Amino acid sequence: MATTAEFRNGLIIEFSNDLYSIVEFQHVKPGKGAAFVRTRLRNLRTGKILPNTFPAGSKIYIQRVERRAMQYLYNDGTDYFFMNTESFEQMQIAKEQINAPEFLKEGNGVEIMYHTDTESVLTCELPATVVLEVTYTEPGEKGNTATNAMKEATLETGALIRVPLFINIGDKIKVNTAEGSYSERVKE
């Protein structure tokens, strides 16, 4: 058992009979009254963010998790299949447990988080950015980089995102998986 003094971003705790990841926390010591810790917790099963306040020094149960590198193979519509790159063991994960399934490309590396006590999969996280090719977009306008005008583009995975006007079909772009947004064009 631990206390709120051990809070850090990314820590997995048991709260209300469920597993939560600490997204952010802030220790607050008001001039009058007892200290407390204001947190934002992400439910690992549903992905919902829950704000919560703990009294300073509260007892919490830290859960042990393990992160394993895996490679994405394919999906059958509802389940996604991954392979352990060391043991070549394959496993399937439900779409709801993946943070950005629309940006998964065959062969991509991902990180899968396991709850070590139950050996169950908690989440599957893509890297912060992935490089994908634009398969369809309206023709680009050369030199149009001064404005923040954007247009729709379809990526090789089928995902739709907004890109700057100068992006053309066949360009490779870097996509921020957390926000689902364009980052930059990748030069070959």
Beta-strand level of the residues, as a percent range? over 45%
Main sheet: strand order: 1-6-2-3-4-5
Relative helix content: under 10%
Report how far apart the termini are. 51 Å
Question: Strand-and-helix sequence, N→C?
Answer: EEEEEEEEEEEEEEEE
CATH architecture of the largest domain: Roll
The secondary structure category is mainly beta
How many H/I helices?
0
Would you give the CATH topology of the largest domain?
SH3 type barrels
Assembly of the depicted chains: single chain
Low-confidence stretches: none
How many DSSP-defined strands?
16
The dominant shape is: flat
CATH class (first level) name of the largest domain = Mainly Beta
Mean pLDDT: 88
Describe this structure in words.
The chain has 188 residues and is an all-beta fold. It has three domains: 2-62, SH3 type barrels, CATH 2.30.30; 65-125, Nucleic acid-binding proteins (OB fold (Dihydrolipoamide Acetyltransferase, E2P)); 129-186, Nucleic acid-binding proteins (OB fold (Dihydrolipoamide Acetyltransferase, E2P)), CATH 2.40.50.140. The protein is 0% helix and 54% strand. It contains no helices and 16 strands. The strands form three sheets. The chain has a six-stranded antiparallel sheet with strand order 1-6-2-3-4-5, with no helix packed on it. The protein has a five-stranded antiparallel sheet with strand order 9-8-7-10-11, with no helix packed on it. A five-stranded antiparallel sheet has the order 14-13-12-15-16, with no helix packed on it. Strand 7 and strand 8 (79-84) form a beta hairpin. The protein starts with a strand and ends with a strand. The model has no long low-confidence stretch (mean pLDDT 88).
